[in-house]
Every structure is written in C-alpha cells, then in structure tokens.
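Handoff note, outgoing to incoming analyst
You'll be picking up this chain. Sequence as last confirmed:
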Amino acid sequence: MSLSNLKSDLRKHSDKKRAKMSQRFFKTGPGEYAEGDIFLGLTAPVMRELSKKFQDLPQYDVIKFLKSPIHEERMLALLILIEKYRKEDAQGKEKIYRIYLGHTKYINNWDLVDVTAKHIIGAFLNDKDRAPLYKLARSDSLWERRIAILSTFHFIGNNDFADSLKIAEILISDQHDLIHKAVGWMLREVGKRDLPAEEKFLKKYCTTMPRTMLRYAIERFPETKRQAYLKGKV
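Most recent structure output, in case you need it:
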C-alpha cells in the first residue's frame, strides 16, 4: 500500500456536505481555534478502517500525512501511528512517542488530541517518569496543554489518578474553554473510579475553577449534589 493509494481511498469516501458541517463544528473560521483547517468529510468508522488497511505504510509517509493541511489526513496519520505503536518493541514505541511529541504543531484540533494522546503519550509514559507531561501542561500551545491532560486518561484507566489531579491543578486557571472541558472530563473519569478522590479536588477548587470545568466534572452527580457544588455549598 502506497501513499497515493491512501490518498485515493480518502477521496473516494469524501463527502462535501459533511466537510462543510465539520468546518463549522471544528471552528475553522477567521480568528477561531482551527482557522483554515480543511476537511474532506470522512466518518470516524471509515478512518479507523483505513488506518488498519494502511498500518504498514512506511513511517516517513505517515509523517508526510501528519504534516498535511487536510484534517482527515492528519487524523489518519495519527491513527496509523497508534496501530504501529501497538505492534512495536520498546525501541519502536519510543520512536513513535518521539515522532508524536516532535509534531505537536500538527496535532492541532481537539479530536486529534482526544483520539490519540492516551494511546501513545500516556501509554509510553505509563511506567516512566511523567515529567514531559508537566512541561506540556505549562506550554503556550493550547494543544500541548490538552495533550498533557488527555494523556493521563491512560493512567486513569489503570486507577492511577495522581498525575491527572496534579495537571488539573496546573490548568485550573487556564483561559481556554477547550482546556476547561478537557480537565472537567478527566476529573469526571477519575470520579467514576474513585469518587472521594474527585470530590476532594472539587471541594478545594469548586468556587474558583472555571464553571465549564466544574459542570463537566459533576455532570453525572445526583441533581442535589450537583447544585450544591454549583452553589459552592459543599
């Protein structure tokens, strides 16, 4: 399978109507967070199918795709990297981890981060020093900050919450709505597995954290408890 085959398959599945909808949904207009991003209009199931079909594409071609101005090409490159990562030995996994970190400027929308960060960055750092996540959490890049918190989703799945909560503290005063949503989501995921751990964090910060972050974190709480947190009466 070649890069030209992959491009041909992508375009066979393109949908102009879906592409226009995606451009609005993913905020590609002037001054928006994904200004100028280009969409072909592919569905997530098609993308996953193609990532498996082309998982043996050479890494240099995958990197070319990752640098594409077309959103789905970047997504597909990342999905292929995940497929490759799962099959690699320790040295190969580290190489893919470094490719990911070296190309974060192209991982520049929330879906690109959310679908991939835990499977490469989180997975690689699972049994290692997690200092790189704290560097990302303090980055000027919105997407690197989102990668930092979303990577911890891998640890949460293993009932390891410390880094999620520490990075949430770093991002507690972040100005961007996409970070508020991501942190709130990860706090909610912590709460699914260890509600006291989530509530300890929320009782400390519920009156000062962004409202969107709080609302995401308490989304599944019973209504009475949810209202108590919203009113800061806990």
